[in-house]
Every structure is written in structure tokens, then in C-alpha cells.
């Protein structure tokens, strides 16, 4: 426990810590009780844990063992297709039936899907209650549990309904990652590759040279990747909480990635897999514009593919470009697009034309379609 890493997120609206360690689960109850000034032990406040049956079965006992009394469980099925308003409404009704009040605290115990929905539930239940993030996937530990972006998907597009609402704290227990399916680990690592590309050359190089250790789940390698990725996210969010400028760089690969997810009804690719395609397309656009050297563009593509495989999906380029019109970064009709300038640096441009985007989407779909033929 003494070797735990603590990284602060400091925004205008709140300050909180991300604690990363390898045996945190049984200690989270005490941490939360202390954040609530003893309110749990005194029986004054109640904790509602949002989780899935699979995650609870694997790790619930270790989490529950640290709480003075058993938390109320709110269950959601696994899968991105459940990240919808209907699920959040059902959870809010269950909370009300259990007598949750404004002093109740939600705890998100799952991956990004559960984290995003729990944060949104916390933002809207009785107009806002507190919540804690206990991320159980690599993706959630390195990215989604931090920064207060909460929400759900609409049929019209990804994350189109939501709110900014920060957690009280984030507890990332890296030992939980040992049960994560390899495909989920790989997909989550794409967000760390993204963090390296936009802001941290050393992290990118580590992911490049140590990919074998990282992919076999070596504890030390993963702990370093989690801590370095969290530092990138915490720094960016602390500088621009509401995504008015700098924070948009966290969206590298997401404009086309989100379009892929919406076009495939959130069922064919994992989030990290979709943004991997998006990062390759964005790097292609940057290379065409001579914003990045051919050598660095090739390195990015190689590392993204190392954390693949990039899997095929069913969509067409025109449809994908049309879906990017719903991107939340677009303002007053102008498209915003994140491009890498090199390894460790990225920018937002506002002049990517529809034709340029279509060309990149067509190049991507030609590879996707060739994968379908050979599969
Ligand atoms: N809010 C943000 O800033 C932000 C950032 C990045 C991504 N996201 C969102 O996060 C979501 C993706 O999150 P994800 O990749 O964690 O997927 P996920 O939440 O769907 O979890 C992936 C799968 O892993 C299982 N699982 C979780 N923990 C496990 C464990 N320890 N052992 C075994 N199985 C486990 C889950 O049951 C699920 O089937 C997307 O909706 C994406 O939009 C949000
Ligand atoms: O925190 C952010 O800001 C991000 O963009 C992180 C992304 O990895 C994440 O997928 C996020 O949910 C995307 O948000 P959105 O606002 O583009 O829907
Ligand atoms: Zn993402």
C-alpha cells in the first residue's frame, strides 16, 4: 500500500485524487468512509454500487469486505449497447425504491460503460449526488474514470447525452486487470497509445519497446502504463475541464472512431478498437498535410497496430463522414479535428474538409473491406 501512486486532478470545480495500487480493493471502504467523515461507519450515509453480475462475481467480495455494512447493488448487463438513457432511468428508479437520498454515494465498479453511466446517474439523481470511480478495465483505469465526462449514447451518435460531473475519488487496483480478457486489454491500451501520441513521448516509446511485457499483463509494466496515462489525462483535464480548447486533444482518433461505433450500433468493435482505426486515419491526414514526418507517422501506425489486431466492421465511408457532423467538438457548423504533429504533440484544426475526411475514410474502408474478404 505504501507504494501506491497518487495523482491529483485539479479543476475549477473540484479537486480529487486518483490512487493506483495493486491491493486497493479491500481498503476502498475505509477510504470512502474517511472521504465522508465517518458517515458510513456512523450509518448516516449509504453506498450504492453499480456493477455487472460478472464483475461482482470476480471481484465483489474483496470490495465489499472493506465496507462497514453491505452496499446496495445496482446491476447492469455488460456491453456498450446498454449505455443508454433507459438503463440510467431504471437505475434511478431502483435508487428511489431503496430510499437513496442526497447524502447517498454511488460507486462505479466496472469498465467505462458502467463508469460513464454511474457518473451520469450521479449527476442527475436528485439533481446531483456524489460518486466514486473504481475502474476495473485497463481503459477505465487509464482514461474514462478520470475527468468527469459522463453520459450515454443515443441512436443518433456516441455520448450525445451527458453531463460533466467529477468523482470524489478514483481508486485503480491493478490486480483486477488479471481477469480482463486479452481483447479488452488490447483495446484499452489504445487509449494509452493515444495519451503517448498527444502528450508523452516517453510513454509512447515504452509502449513501443515493452509491448510484449505490457500485452502479457506484466504487473510492473501495466502499473507504469496506468500511472503515466493517468498523468496525461489529469494534466489535460486540469488545464481545460470543459473541453473549450486543449482537452479536445484527448479526442484524437475519436471523430471517426465514434462514427464507426454509431454506424455499427455499438455492437461490432470495442471503443478502443474503433479509435485505433480513427488514430490511423488522423495520422494519415496529418502526413498528407506534412504536419508530421513520414517517419513519425509510420511509428504511430506501427504501435497502434502492435496493440491490434485492427478488426473489420460493416460501414461505408460516406455514412461515416455524415456521422461526424454530430461530433460534439463541432461548433457553429465548423468541424474540429485532432491531428498529431509528432510523437508527444497534437493540435486541433478547424479546416478539415469533407473531401479530405472522405478520402481518409475511403482509404480506411478499403483496408477494412480487404480484411472482410480474407477473414
Ligand atoms: N468518460 C470518459 O472520459 C471516457 C473515456 C474513454 C472511454 N469512455 C467510454 O468507456 C467505454 C468503454 O469502456 P471499457 O473499454 O472499459 O468497456 P466496458 O465497460 O464495456 O468493459 C469491457 C468488458 O470487460 C468486462 N470487465 C470489466 N472489468 C473486468 C475485469 N476486471 N475482469 C473481467 N472482465 C471485466 C465488462 O463486463 C465488459 O464486458 C465506452 O463507452 C467509451 O465511450 C469514456
Ligand atoms: O476525456 C476526454 O475528454 C476524452 O475525450 C476521452 C475519450 O477517450 C473518451 O472516449 C470520451 O468519452 C470521449 O468524449 P466525447 O466528448 O468525445 O464523447
Ligand atoms: Zn476514448
UniProtKB/TrEMBL annotation:
GO terms for molecular function: 3-dehydroquinate synthase activity; metal ion binding; nucleotide binding. The keyword Transmembrane applies. Zn(2+) binds at residues 191, 254, 271. GO terms for cellular component: cytoplasm. Residues 188-330 form the 3-dehydroquinate synthase C-terminal domain. Residues 75-186 form the 3-dehydroquinate synthase N-terminal domain. Pathway: Metabolic intermediate biosynthesis; chorismate biosynthesis; chorismate from D-erythrose 4-phosphate and phosphoenolpyruvate: step 2/7. Its main location: cytoplasm. NAD(+) binds at residues 112-116, 136-137, 149, 158. The chain crosses the membrane at residues 105-126. Its cofactor is Zn(2+); Co(2+); NAD(+). Binds 1 divalent metal cation per subunit. Can use either Co(2+) or Zn(2+). Its EC number is 4.2.3.4. The keyword rRNA processing does not apply. It catalyses: 7-phospho-2-dehydro-3-deoxy-D-arabino-heptonate = 3-dehydroquinate + phosphate. HAMAP family: DHQ_synthase. NCBIfam families: aroB (TIGR01357). Belongs to the sugar phosphate cyclases superfamily. Dehydroquinate synthase family. This is 3-dehydroquinate synthase. It comes from Granulicella mallensis (strain ATCC BAA-1857 / DSM 23137 / MP5ACTX8).
Amino acid at each position: 500500500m505504501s507504494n501506491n501512486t497518487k495523482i491529483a486532478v485539479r479543476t475549477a470545480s473540484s479537486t480529487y485524487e486518483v490512487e493506483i495500487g495493486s491491493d486497493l480493493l479491500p481498503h476502498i471502504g475505509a477510504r470512502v468512509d474517511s472521504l465522508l467523515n465517518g458517515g458510513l461507519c456512523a450509518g448516516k450515509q449509504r453506498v450504492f454500487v453499480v456493477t455487472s453480475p460478472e464483475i461482482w462475481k470476480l471481484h465483489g467480495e474483496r470490495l465489499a469486505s472493506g465496507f462497514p455494512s453491505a452496499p446496495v447493488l445496482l446491476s447492469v448487463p455488460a456491453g456498450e449497447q446498454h449505455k443508454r438513457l433507459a438503463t440510467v432511468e431504471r437505475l434511478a428508479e431502483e435508487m428511489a425504491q431503496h430510499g437513496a437520498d442526497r447524502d447517498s454515494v454511488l460507486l462505479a465498479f466496472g469498465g467505462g460503460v458502467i463508469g460513464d453511466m454511474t457518473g451520469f446517474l450521479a449527476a442527475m439523481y436528485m439533481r446531483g449526488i456524489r460518486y466514486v470511480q473504481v475502474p476495473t478495465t485497463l481503459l477505465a483505469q487509464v482514461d474514462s474514470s478520470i475527468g468527469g465526462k459522463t453520459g450515454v449514447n443515443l441512436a443518433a451518435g456516441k455520448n450525445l447525452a451527458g453531463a460533466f460531473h467529477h468523482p470524489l475519488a478514483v481508486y485503480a487496483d491493478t490486480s483486477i486487470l488479471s481477469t480482463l480478457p486479452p481483447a479488452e486489454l488490447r483495446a484499452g491500451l489504445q487509449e494509452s497509445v493515444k495519451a503517448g501520441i498527444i502528450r508523452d513521448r516517453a510513454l509512447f516509446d515504452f509502449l513501443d519497446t515493452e509491448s510484449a511485457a505490457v500485452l502479457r499483463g506484466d504487473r510492473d509494466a501495466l502499473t507504469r502504463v496506468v500511472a503515466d496515462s493517468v498523468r496525461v489525462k489529469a494534466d489535460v483535464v486540469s488545464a481545460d475541464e470543459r473541453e473549450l480548447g486543449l482537452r479536445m486533444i484527448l479526442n484524437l482518433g475519436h471523430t471517426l472512431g465514434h462514427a464507426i461505433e454509431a454506424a455499427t450500433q455499438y455492437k461490432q468493435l470495442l471503443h478502443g478498437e474503433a479509435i485505433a482505426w480513427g488514430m490511423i486515419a488522423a495520422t494519415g491526414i496529418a502526413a498528407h498535410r506534412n504536419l508530421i514526418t513520414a517517419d513519425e507517422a509510420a511509428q504511430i501506425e506501427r504501435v497502434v497496430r502492435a496493440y491490434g489486431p485492427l478488426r473489420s466492421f460493416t460501414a461505408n465511408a460516406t455514412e461515416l463522414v455524415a456521422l461526424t457532423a454530430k461530433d460534439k467538438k463541432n461548433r457553429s457548423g465548423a468541424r474540429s479535428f485532432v491531428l498529431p504533429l509528432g510523437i508527444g504533440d497534437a493540435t486541433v484544426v478547424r479546416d478539415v474538409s469533407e473531401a479530405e475526411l472522405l478520402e481518409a475514410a475511403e482509404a480506411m474502408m478499403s483496408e477494412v473491406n480487404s480484411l472482410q474478404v480474407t477473414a
